[in-house]
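Exam review. A common question shows you a sequence with its structure tokens and asks you to describe the fold in words. Practice with the pair below. Do the first one on your own.
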Amino acid sequence: MHERSLPASPNWYCSRCSDVNSSGLLGVGAKNNIYLIDVSASSCRVVGELVGHKDLVSGFAFCQHAGQSHICVSSSSDGSVRFWDSDNKSLVREDAAHQTSVTALHWSPVDKNLVVSGDEKGIVVCHWYNTGDTTSFFPEPRTIFCLSCSPHTWSTVAVGYKDGMIVLIDVSKKGEVMHRLRGHDDEIHSLAWSSVIGEDALYSRPEDSEAFNGVSAGDEKGCYLASGSKDQTARIWSTAKGKGVMTLKLPYIKKRGSAVDPGVKERLWLHVHWPKGQQTQLVSSCFSGELVMWDLTRAGKQRWTLFGTSSEGQNHNRIVFNTSSVHLQDDRELLISTSMDREIKCWDLASLDCLWTLPTLGGFVYALTFSPVGTGCLGLGVGDNMIRVWNTLTTQNQYDTRSFWQGIKSKVTALAWHPKKEGSLSFGTDDGKVGIYDVFSNKPPQISSSYHRKTVYTLAWGPPVPPMSFGAAGGKPSYSLYSCAGEGIILQHDVSKLSGEATDIDKLIRDTNNIKHKLSPHTDLSWKPDGRVVAIGNEDGCIDVYQAPSLKLLCSIQQHHKIINTLRWHHDHSSSPELHCLLASGSSNATVYVHDLRSIIENPPESPAMVTEPYRRLCGHTGKITGMAWSPHHDARLVTVSYDGTAQVWDVLQEAALSNYRDHVGYLLSVDWSPVDPDVIWTGGKDFTVQEWRVSKQEFTKPPKGKKMVALSEKMKANPKQKRKNKKASGAGGAAPLEMNGEPATGGQKAATGQELSGEDEEDEVSSTNSPVPPPATFEMQRKSSISVKSKDKPVFPESNLLKKKKPRSMLPVSTSMDHRPKEDLLQDCITLASVRHNDAPPAGCVPGQGEHIHLGLFSDRQALYRMFEAEEESHVEAGHYDSVVYLRLWSGDLEGALQLATEKGELTDHLLSIAPMAGFQVWSRTVEAFVKQLCLQEQYLKAASHLLSINKLYEAVDLLRSHKLYREAIALAKARLPADEPVLKELYTCWAAVLEKDGHFSAAAKCYLAAGASFDAAKVIARKNDVPSVRTAASLARISGEVALAQSLALRCAKDLVADLDWVGAQEVLSSQESLLVHRLHLCVAELLSVMLADSPAEPQSCISSHPWASPGEAHVSIQDRVRDVWEEQFGVSHESAGHHSVEALLQELKSVESPKPTASVPLRQVQLYSSLHVTRAVLSWLLDDDGQLIKELWQAVAWFRDAAHSAQLCKLLFPDGDASVFSKKHSKTLHHKEEEAKAAADSLQAFVHYHRLYEHWWRNSTQIQNGFSHSAADSSPGDELKEKVVNGGVSESEESVCPEPRRFDKLDFNASLLLSEPHAACQAAQRSAREIQERLAAMVLQHSRVQGGVLGSGEKEASAATQTSGESSDNQGSADAGERSEDPDTLLSLSSKMSEYQKKLADLPATIKTYPHPDVIECCLVLLHLSRSSTSVSESLQQEAKDLLRKHGTSPSVLRASQRFLT
């Protein structure tokens, strides 16, 4: 059993990976094992391991029940849950209920048989220890991070998930969810139950506790649950209510010398622990490894207390993962914590002080060495990128260690203390770095500027050799540092000047010993303590001993035949001087050899001696030797460590095995003898541990016999080829296999090889990058080896063993197969060949290169070789290996035949093509063409085209690319090699453009058209996209390219789209690029002004994207035409004086060509405004030309476009603010004079409409003065239609009339209303109305008749037709003679037809101007005037009489008759 031990580091990022039982036994999951550590208030001691999991231990818990507290349970990433007996370190049972990695585990504090575990898929499993049963639940489909069983109710389990959810489940009810606790928003790291029942301790308000106390009627009372999460908060939950009681935000604790930035999200693991019996105290971890005690009854900064404040350096310096507590007999409660800083600490919960610290190791222990000066100072080189220096003799603290990580950043693989200078420790690393630490200062290490290319295996201090030994006697250092590494060279470093170049000692060895051949790669070196000689071990197993300082070779020891791993000289302070020259050596075979070199050292021979027999041979290990140490207390006593997992103490002189230590798991790598205690040895190995043990206490004396190590068998499984090779070698030689106790003697590997280091990479814990401890090296390390020929340059990765290297096919299989015949035949071949070579005539029947003697063609003359080639060709053809046939033909000089065959079989290659010119131009040209076809079949078109270029077939190359749709490449090639005007180029662009256009890549297609000189097509294709940017671009493109007509049409199209979106500025910009579009700009200017002025009224709200500063609503009394003229002059320079193509005549002529359709009801308002503004533009241009006739017609058209009265009235007001249609412009004193009849008619019609709108305005204005019943909005929205309905359908009601008894309050009519009562227009309108009515009746009649004829009139339709008929009858003049006639009468149809033709004739006889320029409805105007006259004196008697006459004469329709009754009776 061992004395002291440093265990492996506890696993990181596990919610519960350590636990302590009531008797003070701590279990910690580290890698795949669990370490058992006895803890007390004063010290700790590793007492054993539980070994068996195949993957990382992810959870561990003790049973906390009396009588069963030695039973514990662990879970692993391999999905297994194992029960152990910690007393005898044995496995009790294994459960495999989980399919995936187990992430959480707890033994119920209430039920001694219940263990609950959870996995990353969200499955919860209950394990019953006594029966072996398991039951599974699936409460939530989320990843479980932690779980905890209630200390009060056996069936309640709290489960914490990765996404921040906490769920309370009842395992007695199939995992039913009791509560979901929501509040955290990141991983739940830890859950802890209060051991005290009840939830009244933390309620500050009495009503809360009362409310709560009423809850648990028959139930057991709830208790508090604490949770810690990655979201930087701990929360306290009420489990009775299922809601949060309190949130604890982690404090930022400023460390000395480092500021904490709250903005930087540090790495965090928030563990919570509720001390037993405490309801208001909680322990939690913090950001940088601090532990905090919370007092839940306080607030603010008084709420938390930091652990370990009584002295410096007590706290962990990295995040804490687990804490667990134990009550000792003296009623002290201890808290044990594990952390990322690889330390286990014990705390006193009463004083919050750290009682002791146990360092742990996170990697293989590669080097272990005691300081020759500082007694008991042990240096450890570890694979977790750190050096530990352990003062093993301290009495107060048994584990007094310091860690050094600065400047290392890789696995520490070698250490050597300076022989004289205290505290100077040299180190070598996995990545080839060599440095020196002063362990008593806090300075970073000195690093040598000379790096090795591979892993440093050995460091040694020795006397300087040339060139460093030259120089002044006082100036030269007494010691140099020598380093040996994986690339096989030894460097001498000058410690006084590490920044200088280190020297390779091979040069000195060659020069001194006059060696010309290549030196074997070195793998180890050892200076004799007196500095006279140095022993250097090599990869081939040879050990060379050189004399200092010139390094003259004294002898070569040819004993080992495998890589030398370790060399050690006997110490020189023993009593007998003959022992001083003993050299012990260990290699990759298991025997240790000791040589006595006294005679050679004391009497150096002339020429180097060859030593082939050892002085002593130490046999017993079954694995390669990795390290050794001579006892400083005894004569000729040696300890060796090996891959067999044991350390062996030998009496060298007796060749006797004295003691064997077997407590490590896996192979050992380092060993040293205690400098103070003759019975104590220290060892380190693959299991991440360092162990101190006594020689006298070991029960075994020899290594285990014939037992193959696990590591070796794994290696053999991974590399079966090597195993076979050894068997074959021993079998072929007929000799006994070289096995030492079942360990095959495999060659070429130095002890701690890459195999084992790769294992460490797999087993090493997840390390961090954002931390003082650097991450483990991520690359493969090769330990002392693999400098063999095969693996000299490239590292051997473990996977490469699994991938067998494919053996290349033989070029001469037939003759090669002849070499595998029986031995007798092979010997006879030699006789036959000798006869052929030395006799003139060959033996009878022997033709070399043919038949049975085919293989002799290789050793005879050329003819024989050709015969052999023919036979080989036949065999290759049969096997289908035509490439081999081609090579054979090439070799024999038949180049054309080789190319011919390769062409036929489609086996041409770049290599064959490159040598084809040797056969002549014709052959080469044919071969290229054949290869091009072959490449096309393989779809390698670019390569094929390139080969065509080599034989100057440019057009064919371009065509090949084009035919396979590689237009881009084809164009590039044609452009690079053909003249610019080559038609092929234009054709390529056009073809590519068509393809791109088809696929919708319009801009790319346009580029092609442009390159081909087809600008028109380029513009057209871009415009196809039909959005504003595309059309604008197309217009610019067409303009630049000189396609004027297209540019204009596209610009107009674009402007039209922009106007539709009310982007007036954009539209003007588009048109401004082309001077010829000035008239359209003028039109848009008018349209914008009209739009703005109309929009200014509530009737037309519009949201404009962009407009010009001049387009503001302006003053009401300024007419639109005046504003247009002003803007034209200012902005566009257009006035009556403009000349050239800006002249008004030219502009008007151009604008007339723009077609304007006839007004219809279906045109949308914005379009109406645009058409109307077109006529206004023409009118203003006519004004500038003084063409009054044209002007008035255009104005009439502009007004006619607005079908609804509201907009029509508004436009009239904009055109004629004063209501006089003859005054066109006050500002420019323009009055209209009309000579021709049509212009006069248009002017009258326009004036009539102006009066019509003013009539209604007058009526409306006055009626609102009297009566508030009519709203302004109604008036504004339709001054025409609504009132027309009122008037025509019976006028204003009596009640409305009675409201206005005071006629004097009406205004006078301020216009001449007689224009509205035009007799010709009244007659025309009456005739049109009558014709319409007759038309409707005829249509109804024809429809009814056709239905009767068809016999399809249903009852519903009959009713409808009857209704039509009656309405048709009633709508006619009731006083007329034909009122009583039946509609079925054929006379009626005839009479209606004749009436219709009468009206049509009457209408045809009317003057054209009356029909072209209509007036407002005359009958309607009569009614409004008569209505006004009833309540006002504003309508003159004569006007009233005229209105009445017109009503009697033309008001024949029933509705009008009804309305006019009051005025005519």
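Now try the second one, then compare your answer with the model answer below.
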Amino acid sequence: MAAPPQPKKIVAPTVSQINAEFVTQLACKYWAPHIKKKSPFDIKVIEEIYEKEIVKSRFAIRKIMLLEFSQYLENYLWMNYSPDVSSKAYLMSICCMVNEKFRENVPAWETFKKKPDHFPFFFKCILKAALAETDGEFSLHEQTVLLLFLDHCFNSLEVDLIRSQVQQLISLPMWLGLQSARLELELKKTPKLRKFWNLIKKNDEKMDPEAREQAYQERRFLSQLIQKFISVLKSIPLSEPVTMDKVHYCERFIELIIDLEALLPTRRWFNTILDDSHLLVHCYLSNLVHREEDGHLFSQLLDMLKFYTGFEINDQTGNALTENEMTTIHYDRITSLQRAAFAHFPELYDFALSNVAEVDTRESLVKYFGPLSSSTLHQVASYLCLLPTLPKNEDTTFDKEFLLELLVSRHERRISQIQQLNQMPLYPTEKIIWDENIVPTEYYSGEGCLALPKLNLQFLTLHDYLLRNFNLFRLESTYEIRQDIEDSVSRMKPWQSEYGGVVFGGWARMAQPIVAFTVVEVAKPNIGENWPTRVRADVTINLNVRDHIKDEWEGLRKHDVCFLITVRPTKPYGTKFDRRRPFIEQVGLVYVRGCEIQGMLDDKGRVIEDGPEPRPNLRGESRTFRVFMDPNQYQQDMTNTIQNGAEDVYETFNIIMRRKPKENNFKAVLETIRNLMNTDCVVPAWLHDIILGYGDPSSAHYSKMPNQIATLDFNDTFLSIEHLKTSFPGHNVKVTVDDPALQIPPFRITFPVRSGKGKKRKDLDGDDEDTEEAKTLIVEPHVIPNRGPYPYNQPKRNTIQFTHTQIEAIRAGMQPGLTMVVGPPGTGKTDVAVQIISNIYHNFPEQRTLIVTHSNQALNQLFEKIMALDIDERHLLRLGHGEEELETEKDFSRYGRVNYVLARRIELLEEVKRLQKSLGVPGDASYTCETAGYFFLYQVMSRWEEYISKVKNKGTMSPNVSEVSKFFPFHEYFANAPQPIFKGRSYEEDMEIAEGCFRHIKKIFTQLEEFRASELLRSGLDRSKYLLVKEAKIIAMTCTHAALKRHDLVKLGFKYDNILMEEAAQILEIETFIPLLLQNPQDGFSRLKRWIMIGDHHQLPPVIKNMAFQKYSNMEQSLFTRFVRVGVPTVDLDAQGRARASLCNLYNWRYKKLGNLPHVQLLPEFSTANAGLLYDFQLINVEDFQGVGESEPNPYFYQNLGEAEYAVALFMYLCLLGYPADKISILTTYNGQKHLIRDIINRRCGSNPLIGRPNKVTTVDRFQGQQNDYILLSLVRTRAVGHLRDVRRLVVAMSRARLGLYIFARVSLFQNCFELTPAFSQLTARPLHLHIIPTEPFPTSRKNGERPAHEIQVIKNMPQMANFVYSMYMHLIQTTHHYHQTLLQLPPAMVEEGEEFPSQETELETEEEGTPAQADVPGLTDISCTQEALASQTETSPSQAGAGSSPEAVSAVPELTTAVEGGT
């Protein structure tokens, strides 16, 4: 198996290269945005650029990147486009720019939307060019570019401008391209279509000849394109050299056809055209398929196309076809062939009279049809309307091979998609793991096409939806597995020993050599299957390793996935491994197979079960694990061994590799998706079409739901009646009580509910008398019944004054249907979520709500806020492993809840005992929940009923207040409540108090009744299952946990009615979908009533490690983002309360209308300035430091020393002014820079009490969802903008700071970037050098924006800042006498406790530690350690200086000292 060649990484051009480029010079003359006087438009410029820059470089990405980045499309090409100037170079330039925008994943159609007039003409020119002769004006390479452009158009049907043009190519009239007999056949099948077809014909007759000709051209476009492709395909020879242009053209063409087939709107009529062109048959018989190297990707794409052409869907209705319907279609085809054979071809009698099962395999069809002549085969095909009729006495022009393949492939029996899926192994093998077309390396540039499914806006059926996600999820995990295998195996250094065996020269934490491997069980297959039900094997390894690693191996749990690997190295002992060369050849890797741990075996050979019992201590170092192999894979391997004489894979394994548990859940997720596809997965009817991307996107909004609820109790949502009125602007609020004293929350609101159907008729009649009624809300304040005399009986209340959009989100969340809330940074998403949960809990006490989030951290934030509201904690449950991090002393995990119930039961029974004693009842009522129940019924209830009969209104007599207290039977029990219990002011008040006391007692017994189950269920597991299925009302888990545990939850009979998802825009599409199906349908319907998604699609999407899946397959698109793109209505929260208004302006342009909450202007922390700094935000330009800007020690591991040192210097400056270090975080856009900054922090600030460490040093992506007061941000790049060009990353970066944001970057690079202009135009409006006020201590009373009383200093560059901080620090130390004393006496412990001090040759600690490096310098006893002494200590070579730091991040300590020296 040859390893694929390593793809080249595209190197982005540097700023100096950009400036030197011919393109840039032209840009500065004609279209650059920052140039004021531009030259007039000149068509020759476009011609020249196209010929010189694009064609001459063979469409080099670097050149196109430069052009696109310089805003060539926006500011020159499209702005000046008109039919008069349209030319080949003009068309091609626009196509190249649009394709580049798609490759870079930036919005492509915005420019066209702004100026749409000439787009139809432009599009028609493209169609014409795509059909031009390849040897004519347009070369094949250029036509491949056009194909790619067309593909982007077909995939952008949500853009109105594009859709209006594309629709003409793919609607019913395109059937003009069918041959007449086939057209008749199709119209006969669906009579309704004939009516439409006749209408089309009528309309055509009315057109003038020219327009008709134009329309016919468009309708036939795709048919002609297919014919053109077939001619290119046929021109490829079998073995002679072929130009890669032809191969790329063919690949891109098949990609286009797959995309057309995989979308219902394009597939509906096109599928018939495709079938009629017999494209697949031509392709499978072509020479390209048989060319090993060049045709590999083409064959894979062809298999995908074959899959989609035969997809189980009715093209016209869009309904999924069942297994039975597919079989019927197959039988119809065969029987119509048999009828034709019987009537017209006597030589096929045998075939015509056989039963279907006997003749529908490929072998038997070839046996019957093979002997016939070509002309006879042509006649058979024409009877079936597959080919035009053959005129009499003429021979066919088609090859016999083609005709035979046409009949056979059409009539052979197909294995159903679900069967194929069930027979597929879930673990990847070496064939897939290292196949570049399926799992590309991380250097995927976006140039070529790949054999991968794409996630766009729409899907054919739920099966198609799940299948695409299944394949992508499988491949994304395969990519991670590949990285793990390459890492572990190369660490083990497998070499060939002298005797030809394997010897391992290294070791790996995650992999061990296998001592013995035996298959111990192959169980019989289930009926109807041909693979074993299970295959188990024993793997023995020798754990002669450190204890903590041994514990990790012994800690492998049930269901953990491991990989068994066979290596046969050919390299001799001692060969060095080169990471740049292909991996497989170097280590001699032959096989990879996955397995799942069942458990470790004890000394008697039995599996040690996971459980509460301690694990037995095993002697020696040899350990054996029992593992489950994949039965499908085992069956395939064995068949291969028996039929083809291949070697037995299972006798060759010599390495076992484990993976980190966190990243190792792929098999469970894949199994979950496969189970979903095998069950009749029922999505609620109101969601089905929206999930597939069809129909009215607003159909699931509460206003259109048939079961909308008129009256809702908003509980504690509103703080006052004024708050309620401001929350519904434009509505008329009627309160049921007039007394203002009674108009206090909680409120019940009755909304006017209008059914969607009646509305249209009203509009038609012009009736608007009910608009007033439609705007009226009836508000009814109600009093929460008294819950008892104790202070803790008072309900907890919400204290947040929600804005009117937040109220709309809460209202929508309480109504049935789909609610999407877009929550920009700092707009209170979590508060809204918690209030919705609380309101649903109180309005619908019998319903259960499932909370799903992306991270444990978000779940913890939600839980902490839920506990502050009036929700009984016995109804809360948290599943998964994150509950350890909850910052409360309460445990909400399953076992934590079981313990809570048991403890609560004992507490309540104690209360029952006290009550029994107070009533003087003998016996032991508090023995169990059951006895307590009887006690309540016979002793408590009887006393209460007797009491009520005494004090209730007796008709004529007015009730006596004193009697309420006098006859009350539970005085003694409530003796420990605040006294007096009864106020004696009025009868009603005292009666309410008495009833409150009884409610308190009654609640004790209802809870005990609920806890009775835990007396009957004895084991913790049973009790926890009972809690999950019966008791808990609010169940929370992460999306990963839901995917892993779906099978168990469904089996338990888990049920829920509502789902709330937080961080929905960060969850993978499939992980968002699985939580909808964690329960079995009831009577064929889903119970789900509400689905609330809260997220922000303008922030970062889910993390996909492999660029190809992220960009090419669009796997990073969350379901939330897709819904927004499809047009599902959203509630956009529009007031932020996190950051200063000026900071909010840096990102609020990205949102519809994002304003500020009043407190952002009013609170003193927002109105005072940042001490010591002139501005609250600044972009600080950082030039090259010692001639270096960004550097890249490893691929994609970007660092920028100048920015890192500058950021740390500013951090130290702030700390020296008195800022708390934990209020400052340092962020960066790359991992490499993060490591470098951490490294510098460790050296400069280490454990220095004067400075401290920042709260976090991390990447922007990791910091999403968190915030801090002051953010220092390093943008790292100086050559190309890199991934900050993704506006979502910019939004996250700009929105993390509350009070101050200081950005270090190369301004000349970022200010030219079109997508980032709105933010960078504000940043560059302020000075680009840091302005500081060193004499202003923290905190200051200066208002933000005021001129300071102190002197302002301008810092020009990083060395100046480093110098300044150094002298400031020394000054601080010398003025602090206390420090002076400590330093003179310098206890030895100070040196030992700090970080290890390397010798004076390698490191300079002086300026950070506050202790000159005198511990290392003999004879240096005085503090007067001058900068000269410093300099003399540190005149070392950079190579020595870097010795103490991490290998990736060579710190700049020596350079800094030279800077310090130079500055003095």
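Model answer, second protein: Residues 12 and 1280 are 6 Å apart (CA to CA). Residues 1-8, 757-769, 1386-1464 have pLDDT under 50 and may be disordered. Full marks require stating both points clearly.
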